[in-house]
Amino acid sequence: MVTDQRLVDAFVGFADTLVAEFDTIDFLHTLTETTIDLLDADAAGLMLADQRGDLQVVASSSEEARLLEIFELQHEEGPCLDCYRGGQPVTNVDPDEAERRWPRLGAAIREAHFMSVHALPLRLRNQVIGSMNIFLARPGTLSEADIALGQGLADIATIGLLQERAIKEHRVLAEQLQGALNTRVLVEQAKGVLAERQGLEMAAAFTVMRSHARRTGRPLRDIAAGIIDGSLTGAVLQGG
Amino acid sequence: MAVTKVHAILADAVAGSRDGVTLPEWLCSACVRLLSVTGAGVVLMGSRGFEGLVAATGGLATTMDELQFSLGEGPCVDASKAGHPVLEPQFRRTGPARWPGFGPEALAAGIEAIFAFPLQVGSIRLGVLDLYRDVPGDLSSMELSEALALADAATTILLHLQARTELSGELHPDLEPTQNRAEVHQATGMVAVQAAVGLTEALLLLRGHAYSRERSLLDVARDVVARTLRFPPEDGHHE
Q1: Which of residues A224 and A174 earns the better pLDDT score?
Q2: Phi-psi region for residue A60, left (φ > 0), alpha (ψ -120 to 50) or beta?
Q3: A2, A174, A212, B115: most buried by Cβ count inside 10 Å?
């Protein structure tokens, strides 16, 4: 169970981020990390509808290939897709049930030694724009309080994604979602460039980029662009 | 699934673009056929701005893109810079304030709504798909989804056209859409450094390699990320 103080700290942290110079991708990554921390979970990811009928990963708590594979399989089947389509949370699915409902994904979940999987909707009023995927490697379930907390975190993800508060028209939603999806691609390309230049693993390359973004107060998008056009060198990034 | 939809559009494009119709021309006419728009254009647009009009359905569509080209402002420019669509369903109300040069001229020409979709893969900026209509009004959600798939197809077509000029040996006749997976984009960045090329060419190298080995782009990308496959500079990738 989460202590009140930890909860307050986490939410105050998000409030700070949301009013300061805002960086969507970095924010969503932080949110996945906070989610696994507060729910005592082992992995989390955020998937966004790309408005072409598919879900795309925009943030995940780790770069582990096995986890990426699980996200990948959910383009076809799985809790995120069910949650996105039905608009309802999918919670406390154990590997047996997962294999019955989604044969290929269930096998991957078992192989990754997850004991339960959950998906909570990212909601904008009546519309679902994506879902938050949570994995537990420990036995046991998420309680109703845990799920309510998870849903609160998923709602914060939606707020962070859609920076314009009063989205009445689907065109504004389209502009913002497509922008976030493209920034994600840019960040992945920059991770590749930096990983190769500096001989780093992807996760380490991302950490270097995020630290630099925070140190300099510049958005991750700018850091990524600087790495790709060569104006930000490894020495600058790691030199502090 | 989304990739299937883009794939179907590209297959139709290849089949439909034989009798003197180019792929971008086919795509523009498909936009008019599938969406409630009057005309469409595909412009090449990189970091230096406009590089040319590739195809347009003629009349107003050509005017719309030429106006933006000569004035250096408009939905195309903004979509390319921002990396997201610029949708202006009520152009009469919003256009002149947003683009003081382009807005009034476009209205005078009879344009009442504009929808500009960037043709990009992260930092790879290829161009913009520009749609307009002569009456105001939004694209429906279904149409928006279709337009995004058409824009994905247009992105693949522009990549393909680049491959034809720069890597003639590795022409890809079947025009596979680029899978939108983290590993593909990470590998593109790694290959750019290994082969000392830009990101566009790096993606083309990956696609060419996958095609010539009859492997999926994602599998090849995973090998690059796992550092079991490298693309050395110059012609080392041709065996």
Answers
A1: A224
A2: beta
A3: B115
Lowest mean pLDDT among B24-28, B51-55, B107-111: B51-55
Q: Which residues of B touch A190 (CB under 8 A)?
A: 123, 189
For A174, nearest residue in chain B (alpha carbons): B85
- What distance in Å separates the CA atoms of residue A53 and residue B12, rounded to the nearest whole number? 20
Among chain B residues, the shortest Cα distance to A170 is held by B141
Number of H helices, E strands in chain A: 11, 5
Per CB-CB distance under 8 Å, the chain A contacts of B89 are 171
CA distance A121 to A47: 10
Q: Which of residues 171-200 of A touch B (CB under 8 A)?
A: 171, 174-176, 178-179, 182-183, 185-197
Mean pLDDT of A45-73: 87
Q: Count of H helices and E strands in chain B?
A: 10, 5
Residues sharing a CB contact under 8 Å with residue A19, sequence separation 6 or more, in sequence order: none
Round to the nearest angstrom and report the end-to-end CA distance of chain B: 35
Q: Choose from B4, B115, B144, B186 for mutation: most chain A CBs within 10 A.
A: B186
